[in-house]
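Hi R.,

Here's the chain you asked about this morning:
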Amino acid sequence: MAAVTLDRDALAALLPHAGAMCLLDAVESCDRQRIVCTTMQHRNPHNPLAVDGRLGCVQGIEFAAQAMAIHGALVAFPAGVRPAVGWLGRIRDCVLHWDRIDTHAGSGSYDLGGAEASRTGEWRAGIGKLLAADLPPPVRALLAPYLDAVASFNPGAAAGGDLKIYPGSPALVRHWLRAQDRMIACEAEPAAARALASRMQGDNRVRPVAIDGYTALNAYVPPKERRGLVLVDPPFEQPDEFARLEQALAGAHRKWPTGIVLIWYPLKDARGTQAFGRRLAGLNIPRILRAELTVAPAQDAQKLAGSGLIVVNPPWILADELAVLLPALARVFAGTEGRSRLDWLAGE
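And here is the predicted structure, written out as tokens:
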């Protein structure tokens, strides 16, 4: 058979499932031996297989079953003939390595009074602690632009009230944009992309784009101004995320060697993050600064122990400012157990 690609509408015509129960978005390639499908429906908060907003990993079997059905239809039936309905009778020897596959990307800002934020209360151990902390004047001065931005979304917090909204990175960056600046905000997950577009509506400086971030990084650099900042904040849903980051950074730097690139990554598996740093150091990219903040023991490779940032072409005073900020933040969030690291993976 000839190579086949299908969009969501075309593949939906080959499945008995309708609407949200059609779990695949596209067929990227298909031949008699294999099929490659893509989807973002696992990150859809309204996925019909989700329970209490969570999508169990076992539900991935249904994603695979639909891919099997599409493959059988394309291989066995001539074009234009709707296939007969088949049944999947039994699954055995299935090993699950993850407990869920529903991590969602940001949508611009977060409702701290919503069900999820209220249930976990995680923000109280983060921004909540920071607002309540008695910060030394040099630290407070460095954090002032950020704290002022958070306060602008929460007028009541200045009078001692709880935060209601936490601004995500698109909202924070927009807060700091000047009249002549512009921002491209990229989000692939459909529901989050719609929310992002709604929140940014009416601001001609901001262009929300429903696109995968790695694709956007290749498409939008270098900017026409030839100067700017790229923030790469991936969801880390895939086991090869560090490799994808390394490849994306190398490609972006070839096209835009003077650009500032900021990469966030989680601190979970110490060996993985150390290997990531070594690979970045070997990319022959000058001026790579690494900053890490650890607020919990790294006892479980699946639990977040802290966060790291990679900065390529950092502004000249950033390293000095982070040397003041990081130890102070470690004390705020974790007391004497907090740790920080600041070093250069590559110099000039």
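One quick note: Residues 1-102 form one domain.

Cheers,
M.
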